[in-house]
Amino acid sequence: MASSDALLPISAREEDPLVSDGSRSDPNAETHRRKRPVKGLLAVSFGLLFIAFYVVLIATHHGSSRSNDVKIESDETATTTSRARLAGVSEKSNDQLWKLSGERNTVSFAWNNSVLSWQRTAFHFQPEQNWMNDPNGPLFYKGWYHFFYQYNPNAAVWGDIVWGHAVSKDLIHWVHLPIAMVADQWYDANGVWTGSATFLDDGSLVMLYTGSTDKSVQVQNLAYPEDLNDPLLLKWVKYSGNPVLVPPPGILPKDFRDPTTAWKTSDGKWRITIGSKINKTGISLVYDTIDFKTYEKHDTLLHKVPNTGMWECVDFYPVSKTAVNGLDTSVNGPNVKHIVKASMDDTRFDHYAVGTYFDSNGTWIPDDPTIDVGMSASLRYDYGKFYASKTFYDQNKGRRILWSWIGESDSEAADVQKGWSSLQGIPRTVVLDTKTGKNLIQWPVEEIKSLRLSSKQFDMEVGPGSVVPVDVDSAAQLDIEAEFEIKKESLDKILGDSSVVAEAEEFSCQKSGGASVRGALGPFGFSVLADKSLSEQTPVYFYLAKGKDSKLKTFFCTDTSRSTFANDVVKPIYGSAVPVLKGEKLTMRILVDHSIVEGFAQGGRTCITSRVYPTKAIYGAAKLFVFNNAIDATVTASFKVWQMNSAFIHPYSEEAVRALSST
Amino acid sequence: MKMVVVMMIMMVMAMVSEANMIEQTCKETPDFNLCVSLLDSDPRGSSADTSGLALILVDKIKGLATKTLKEINTLYKKRPELKQALDECSRRYNTILKADVPEAIEAISKGVPKFGEDGVIDAGVEAAVCEGDFKGKSPLTSLTKSMQKVSNVARAIVRMLL
Predict the structure, then answer these.
(1) Which of A38, A63, A81 sits opposite B37 (nearest CB)?
(2) Which site among B7, B15, B20, B134 would you substitute to test the A interface, given the most A Cβ atoms closer than 10 Å to its Cβ?
(3) Which spans of this chain does the record mark as coiled coil (chain A) (predicted)?
């Protein structure tokens, strides 16, 4: 990164070298030297040298402290204008870790094992211990759903990555299996990273994955099951000719990862896409192959969007415009739209866009370029903690299923102490919203209902400014389905009242101040993982804002700012607007599972996943409340709450695997 | 003779251009002076690219954590009444050494800087938590504040790798 402007000749400079910005060429000194005799030349050279050394002395020692101890000025409010913000991309939510979240408490909470062990989930996928991140190669084969994942066998932080493996009959009850792939070749010595599976015409399957080589170059490798007759796919073989793809010209060696599932082109070849970047433009490269061993790279890209940074975990798949079933990745046709999704390295958000795919040249354009993939206003699968997501086509039930890595929002010390870090979200079906045509709809897989135990139905009116305890016994493992309606009289009054300010244009969950800030038509919803006195609580709620034309804009938010007294935890307020069509009631579904809360509004049009770490609202002290914090409006709430059973995810054991193999 | 002179000039130019590299990088951090002093004082700073500069800062975090742990150990004898807070600080700073630093080094070297960012941010958080445990009467303030400052600078540089 050294600027060649910095080179010549220092003697020509009058100003302070630290202040100048590098424009220093002075050709005069050059020509001067050529005309002088040798002795004079020597004198000038030494003179230059002395000046140069002197200047370098100043340049390298300016600002260095006199003592060895680094002197710190007190500057608590310094923030970084990161490249992301400068590029117009939203700042990553991890910013909140800059300062301790500690308005409500001065002393930090010392985690103890009782509080920490409560955090482990009952029915979300997680390994028995240590760190997990991206979902890898999800697939259905010979009666089993397979799930692979980035795993660190040695620590509760990222590192030493290998492929973990587990199987399930129903995407909910999992059995852990031995590690599928380790870093045992030169081409993945520094990491067996993310990849995807493709089923071939003969029913066999291949895996393409990124390896970080012994020189830390990112390459793509081919692997396949050692024994296709083993439904558990325990053993994997790496192709002897790996790597099958290396970074092409123009792409840096560390900007080439996460190959997708392949799809068939109209001339019978397989096609994949791989995310990357060129300067600050996020891009997706396209390759065609017949045998997954040799590839032709397209000169054109699948797509690119300026100022979005590196595209990780690109996903590309068709959705039906008319039907609610999922589609095999190779499906194309007039009744089909295509989704391009990417995980934005700069912001840790997953973005997607709906668009049209052109098979003849392997390109794609969005339906709405103003919300193109990765732009700050573009759609996200989930407005909370949700990254590196990946879909697969479930040929067993004809659905497209979405997995996602849900990281922790707490400190690494807590992760190390509790011995684990990260979850996967509950797998969701993904379809195009046929009513709007512009967004996807996600919904927890049906199989999760098998965990429902007892339930209670509630129907109540919740007046303005009230919080009502919901009597459900235990409240750490819940499935809640709710319908809300603002009483017509309240709505009419507020819409007709011109003194009620139209705030829909400016409102955002993030900047609203949270659920304690009262508006005309909200917030109202549920407070989950709350203790009796509501000293800790996590509201999941709707907020209706009046628009300029007296229309209503509905927002769906989750406020974790008061979820815990702990101050080494990130506590953001998440959310987004949610489309509500004419005649629709406001509906909300919430899955509560200890330290994870997943909220779904309007049948899955807007989803929010949050991680929370209460210190008091745990075990028997965790309660559920329904609330209405609107100033004037009354709300009717009709909802059902189920207790959720544990999924009893099976630890790995040889006996269990043998038993499974014989079924 | 001319060759020697030319070589010496080129060496000087390299030194100046690397000094500029450090300056340009440090300008984009929240604490220019601290950043420059940390990078200048390290012999590797003179020929490092952005990744290399980031790794130097991770090394500074490691050194500072080690130094703080030593101080915590001496405080157990000098200020036994602070045992509980010192225990928590010990846990926090051991996390920096055993989790944050290795994670950051691996991530930055392998080109997945976002995990490096997690590690350096967390170093600042752990330091702040430790400081908070003393309820305003901390004997470690200058060390914990240092860590937060270094963490801020390190994070800004890791950001440039994304």
Answers:
(1) A63
(2) B20
(3) none
Residue A581 host element (H or E) = none
Catalytic amino acids of A?
134
Find out whether B144 and B151 touch, Cβ atoms under 8 Å: no
Domains contained in chain A, CATH given: 130-444 (2.115.10.20), 452-644 (2.60.120.560)
At A499, is the pLDDT very low, low, confident or very high (cuts 50, 70, 90)? confident
Task: Say if the Cβ atoms of A6 and B31 lie within 8 Å.
Answer: no
Q: How far apart are CA A436 and CA A605, in angstroms?
A: 10
Nearest alpha-carbon partner for B27 in B157, B161, B123, B162: B157
Residue B132: its chain A contacts at CB < 8 A?
100, 102, 106-108, 567
Give A90-105 pLDDT, tens digit per residue. 333 344 334 455 444 4
> Closest to A70 (Cβ–Cβ): which among B30, B38, B136?
B38
pLDDT tens across A282-304, in order?
999 999 999 999 999 999 999 99
Q: Do B132 and A108 touch (CB under 8 A)?
A: yes
In angstroms, the CA B76 to CA B79 distance is: 6
CA atoms of A255 and A249, how far apart (whole Å): 12
pLDDT at A66: 35
**Pick from A541, A494, A483: which is nearest to A515 by CA?**
A541
Cβ contact, residue pair A70, B122, below 8 Å: no
Does the reported pTM lie above 0.80?
Answer: yes
B33 contacts in chain A (CB < 8 Å): 63
Q: Which of A575, A616, A611 is nearest to A594 (CA)?
A: A611
Using CA atoms, how far apart are residues A124 and B89, in angstroms rounded to an integer? Answer: 32
| pLDDT in the model for residue B37 | 95
Interface membership of B12 toward A (CB under 8 Å): yes
Q: Can you tell me the distance from the alpha carbon of A461 to that of B30, in angstroms, rounded to the nearest whole number?
A: 52
What proportion of chain A, given as a percentage, has pLDDT over 90?
76
Percent of chain B at pLDDT > 90 equals 82
Cβ of B21 and A1 within 8 Å? yes
State the pLDDT at residue A74.
33
State how far the Cα of B115 lies from the Cα of B133, in Å rounded to an integer.
Answer: 27
Stretch 555-584 of chain A: residues touching chain B, C-beta under 8 Å: 567-568
Close Cβ partners of A653 (under 8 Å, ≥ 6 residues apart):
none
**Are residues B114 and A345, on separate chains, in Cβ contact within 8 Å?**
yes
> Which pLDDT tens digit goes with each residue over A436-452?
999 999 999 999 999 99
